[in-house]
Amino acid sequence: MNFNFYRSKLIIFLVIALPSIVVLVFIFLKSPSSPPVDENDNCHQTNLPYQDKTLPIDQRVADLMNRMTDAEKIGQMVLIEKNSIHNLGDIAKYNLGALLSGGGAGPKQDTPIAWLQMINGFQSATKDTCLGIPLLYGIDAIHGHGNVLGATIFPHFIGLGATRDPDLVKRVAKATAEEMTATGIYWNFAPNLDVAKDIRWGKTYETFGSDTANVAQLGLAYLEGIQDSSADYFNVLANPKHFLGGGNMEYGTSRNKKFKVEEGNITIAEKTLRQVHLIPFQEAITGGARVIMVGTASWQDKINSDNYHLLTEILKNELEFSGFVVSDWYGVYQIETSKYNSLVRAVNAGIDMVMAPFEYKDFISNMREALSKGDITKERIDDAVKRILTVKFEAGLFDRPEALPGGLSVIGNDQHREIAREAVRKSQVLLKNKNSVLPLSKSLKKIIVAGSAADNLGRQAGGWTTEWQGIDGNYGILGTTILEAIKNTVSRDTDVEYNKKGDFSIRNNFADVGIIVVGEKPYAEGWGDIANPSLSPEDLLVIDKVKAKSKKVVVIMVSGRPLNIKEYTKNWDGVIASWLPGSEGQGVADVLFGDFAFTGVLPVDWELY
Ligand code: GLC
To answer: Separation of 329 CA from ligand 1 center, angstroms?
Structure first.
């Protein structure tokens, strides 16, 4: 072929392909995915004042802030769910400062080593950033490190509320923190300081109950246990939530059509809001709280994340809270349709860190636009970032050594499980004890056991365990079911027969005692909102079948809240509120068979008659 042939081909190619190449290059350069690059000539230096742990924290913060660009500051103000990070390089590219695991969001395998590797992977990605600011990584370890296989699962707060025992709650928190730090996680979205005034709310079990003083006392104990400020830095950051008043959200007012209470509206007067709901937060702030999460409730139809009076005038000015304020899941973007306007309103109301939780690119471009337009001032951004960085230094993120596999043996260890077992037995509330049927003798001849929660760790544990909504079965949790605990406790001569549905081929009244363990399926948050918390027809049928075969019946209620059972209890001899005891079912047997007395006190009203 001669030269002219190729020349003509080349001309045709250039005429056709060149314009599209130009367009592609233009799109790439303008693509929103590549943020504007702020030049920073402080990159990757060592021995700088902010890196010197002998200096006071305020000096380290001041030095670091002076070296930060606007882009680096804005990246500290967003909290991202880890599953939205599809490229580790985005952590440096967008200067991201905080990640979280939403409920159940873990590595492919929930093993402790996989968690540690995942967290260390995220942290090591920050080394590619200019200033090497470590990530804050948060998780809902609200009844132990519940997402991690093998972790100790403590009773949910509603059960701890029944113990009225601050020392015990402090030890539960400390053990939880030890299992968290073993995986390199130093921020727990707990304690929940909501004062639950309506048990139809799915979050009732996440609270210490309906008594403000009990919530305040146990919330402070939990915070002190988690943070353990005996060292140069906090062990794990506590995060009191949800500011403010969520326990008084009114049934049927949810903004979310899937829910009835969650994301609902509060109409109580400010005086009541302060007397019932503010006191636990005041105690927590006095006790050292450094992060406070704002709930998605509305007060007088104004979303909490948009409320300057609550977040700045009361929380930051009146209570002198100097830590940082983080919004709850999408709580900011529910303010109005425009994401830009919602973000501006929330940050100006007093939100310092936005739990987006996914769209970090939009967040960053909106914040840069708001800063350039003056809709959010440099002073407000500097105030938020100063708060966040101060807390990061207080949590030792710049100074503490990386968590190593050797520390993982603390997870689910015997000492922690013993604390959990103590918490279980102290949380059991004896609701009825006709003719002193309880405690049971360990040497009865025949015990029959039945019920949906008798041999089911998932139901014992409830929501926020392995999965956000919990699990219904015996996978993903290592522990002792209530059935196993009963078998562990009785004498060798006692025959314990189990049938989940209550089908026993024995003659009527043959068993000395029938024990039926029933209650609620696992749930979390709005998915647990319900008009009439009660036992299912299936559970009630099982109780009737067992009663026919037994001389006495004891019903153990495994639930996140009181259930409406008053029309049934007259035929039951013993009734125990077990709440959501978690992995250590042996604690139930401890009081069932009298090794320990029942000491639990109702944390919320439960009308039996
Ligand atoms: C949830 C909850 C909050 C939790 C957060 C992160 O929606 O409201 O309690 O800490 O999101 O999982």
So the answer is: 6
